[in-house]
Design brief:
By secondary structure, this protein is mainly alpha-helical. It has helices spanning about 1-10, 15-20, 25, 30-45, 55-80, 85-110, 110-115, 120-145, 160-165, 185-200, 215-220, 240-245, 265-275, 295-300, 340-345, 400-405, 420-425, 445-450, 470-480, 490-495; strands at about 350-355, 360-365, 385-390, 410-415, 435-440, 460, 485. It has three domains: about 1-165, no CATH class; about 180-300, no CATH class; about 325-495, Alpha-Beta Horseshoe (Leucine-rich repeat, LRR (right-handed beta-alpha superhelix)), CATH 3.80.10.10. Helices cover about 40% and strands about 5% of the residues. The protein has a seven-stranded mixed sheet, with helices on one face. The chain starts with a helix and ends with a helix.
Amino acid sequence: MTVSILLQATQPADWVLFFGRFHPLIVHLPIGFLLIAGALEIGRRWGKIGVEDSTITAILFWSAVSATLACAFGYMLSLGGGYDEEILDEHKWQGIGVAAFAWVAWAVKSDWLGDKIPFGSALYLPALTISLVLLAVAGHHGGSLTHGSDYLTQYTPQPLRTLAGMTPRSQEVTIKPITDVNQAMVYEQIVNPILQTRCVQCHNAQKAKGGLRYDTAEMLRKGGEDGPVFMVGKGLESAMVKRCLLPDDDEEHMPPKGKTQLTESQIALLTWWIDEGASFEKKVAELKVTDAIRPVLASLGGGGGPSLRPVDAGGTAVATGPAPDAKVLTMAVPVASSAVIDELKKTGLLVLPISKEQNQLEVSAVNVRTFSDAQAALLPKISEQLVWLKLGDTQISDATLAQVAKLKNLQKLHLERTNVTDAGLRNLNGLANLEYLNLYGTSITDAGLTQLTGLKNLKTVYLWQTKTTEAGIAALKKAMPNLEVIGGMTEQAVAQK
């Protein structure tokens, strides 16, 4: 007991942790060797495979050697801490069991030891079987330590869940989708999904690196061995954000190099949440929404809900989006062909009425991310009725903008995170009614901004995370004084603050 306490209290040497990191690599060797040995033994006994005893003996020898090495390296890895002690202890003894029974199976099978071991032939199959069973159980616990206790069972089909007595998936904790971003719970629907997909893998009940857990709000508030992970009102000074902004090769960078990194938008959202008080109970509408964070929040709404409301100087939400008295919204147009609408819906597009009296429509690709240039040829078939078009996060390119150019009554256009370029923007010059344009996350440059000056009625353009520069935006504002240009800070700019 004293030795165990001393080992835990002493920071392991770098060379110990260095070799420990090789455990995930080495552990695959005994898995492969033992499975091959088992398969060959079954095939031979069924008369399906002709294999010499010496071949199986050699495979068992290397399975035992590699299993022993995996145990040694696994022990070194465990000294780094951050794992659930109960599961780690079970995993350790199961791994030792795999190595021990692999050695027994090899010994009784070998020519120079088998005859010297009493009842050796009777021990062979039980030893091989037990090592394979322990291998499966140890693998499960290893996955639990690395990815969480439900890693292997999370997507178990309901019939199997019922047979195994598992909790139905409908009763598990789920993250509510965002339909109206203004009413979204900031922590529950925006912050927590980021943490679940980027942080919980290493900071959970089974594996709490640095004593820190992100899996529940209570544990997030508690912090880790180094103290709180966020400082209310100081996003850029909080460890949660600062570590994400470190260079990828920095040892303190999170998530570790090789794992899926947070996007600039996700870092911006975490920073904004902390700056605004790190509330676990408030909605978006209750917080101040700045120009910088507004397009990021708007992109979370799925394109189908109300527009995100900005705030006034006092932080109160105010109305936004196309003005209700805009000329195009008061213009009556013929009813769209039901056959054309059905054709659009077959591609997965949502076709929604904006005004039944004026027969105007909104078309959204929120449910069909595979929407492409080929399908865009359908859009001009409702050129009179189509007023709002949302093609964000789809596979369209400049070719689609040639079709969009035919939508003479288009007032609102979403192109965020698509492959449109400066060249494609030339097609939009003829859209006399266009007032709102979202180019967030595209490769648009200053050259593309010059194409927008022909859009005399354009009121709002989003340029967050584009390749435009401050000089280009300034030139655009000079040419169009009444245009609201909403840009954003890059990750590099945030890090330099």
